[in-house]
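Lecture notes, part 5. Sequence design as translation. It can be helpful to think of inverse folding as translation between two languages: the language of shapes and the language of residues. The source text, in structure tokens, appears below.
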């Protein structure tokens, strides 16, 4: 037979159990707070690193764009393709056959436009031929001026 509830001894493990469980609960709470603060610190660090990367990429992009725009050259677009003219320059044929760079100077400096058989301007071709034989700043300036 079972003894009655009034006769059973009262359990006495409440205070010892609380003394064991309370430090464990406090330690687990502190661990959770510590992990949360570490996670927040890592998150803030990752955001700062991302911002530094974006800033660095922006500076690099600005530097690349500045370098590339400084090297841009304008391209002239001509409205029509060159057409072979009716009058072909005989002096051009003679200068090409002589293969003498001095023979091209009068053709380059001629104010009257002359054309090759293909319809190209003789002055520009003569300036290029002179520049390939004598790449001086004066010849380069004349080439740029003609083209």
């Amino acid at each position: 037979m079972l003894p009655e509830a009034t006769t059973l001894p009262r359990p006495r493990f409440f205070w010892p159990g609380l003394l064991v469980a309370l430090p464990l609960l406090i330690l687990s709470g502190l661990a959770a707070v510590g992990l949360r603060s570490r996670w927040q610190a890592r998150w803030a660090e990752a955001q700062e690193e991302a911002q530094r990367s974006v800033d660095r990429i922006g500076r690099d992009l600005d530097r690349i764009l500045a370098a590339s725009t400084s090297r841009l050259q304008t391209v002239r677009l001509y409205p029509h393709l060159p057409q072979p003219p009716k009058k072909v320059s005989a002096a051009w044929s003679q200068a090409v056959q002589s293969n003498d760079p001095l023979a091209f100077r009068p053709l380059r400096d001629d104010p009257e436009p002359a054309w090759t058989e293909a319809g190209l301007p003789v002055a520009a071709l003569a300036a290029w031929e002179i520049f390939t034989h004598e790449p001086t700043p004066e010849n380069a300036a004349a080439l740029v001026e003609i083209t």
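The translated text above is only one of many valid answers, since several sequences can fold into similar shapes. The helical segments are 14-70, 90-98, 101-109, 122-133, 137-146.
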